[in-house]
Amino acid sequence: MTSRFPALLLALALLIPGIPAHAQITVTDDVGQSVTLRTPARRIVSLAPHVTELVYAAGAGHTLVGAVDYSDYPAEARSVKRIGSYVRIDLEAIAALKPDVVIGWRSGNPATQLERLRALGLPVYINEPRSLDAVAHSLRQIGILAGTQSAANAAAEAFIAHRNRLREDYGSRAPVPVFYQIWNQPLMTINGHHLISDVIRLCGGHNVFNALDVLAPKIGIEAVLAANPEAIVASGMGESRPEWLDAWRKWPTLNAVQRGNLFFVPPDLIQRHTPRILDGADLLCHQLDSARAKRPS
Predict the structure, then answer these.
(1) What tens digit of pLDDT does each residue of 219-249 get?
(2) Residue intervals in the chain for CATH 3.40.50.1980
């Protein structure tokens, strides 16, 4: 009986949440670095608006103690303490919050500031979803970090189910050549590795600048005219359609202009790496379908 006692204690520890057996957590982030926590995080700092949204979607909003500016969704995120912007992080404010983990953004946060956070001894997990599958993966990973796997996995499964429905409905329809415009001055677009390109493919579209090397490159008007997209999709900075989208009407030979295919998708619904990107996909898929309907017979 005595020899079995340690084994019995271990079995009980695994079954009873209050006994911390093997509570250490190790995950690999989106840049291949291992991040280890002794226990699930109870204090999380987010360094990007989309990360804040992912944390809430993964059922871990109650763990957020700090977030960057423009972390405005869901509504309760607006009351989380601000620690600067995603490009200018307040390192002292973050250290004062004593987070269990900081979740950063590879494309948005300055690498030097992320390294300074690590130098302070803070665990830093880097998030960088480049595909719709990666958004679901992000939810699951945050669930592991925060100990909210049940809610996070349910959110990931719902996201994948929504994605699959759209793929079944639109993925095999006739391709629509698309120019996605991030901004007008400078004129910017996305390449084929960007998450938005995955949304365009989901809707049966084809990014005319897939082959460019840079994730969000600057281009010239001449390149757009040469590509002659059938649809131009813009996002801008807010909920209103950007005025510069209609500037393309100065080039009436463009197929997108001739057929009235100048579309707007609110940036929060397509430029944030979160479950809401499928709301943007719903809108984009309908827009590209309307472009197909306008084709000459």
Answers:
(1) 999 999 999 999 999 987 777 789 899 999 9
(2) 14-156, 172-293
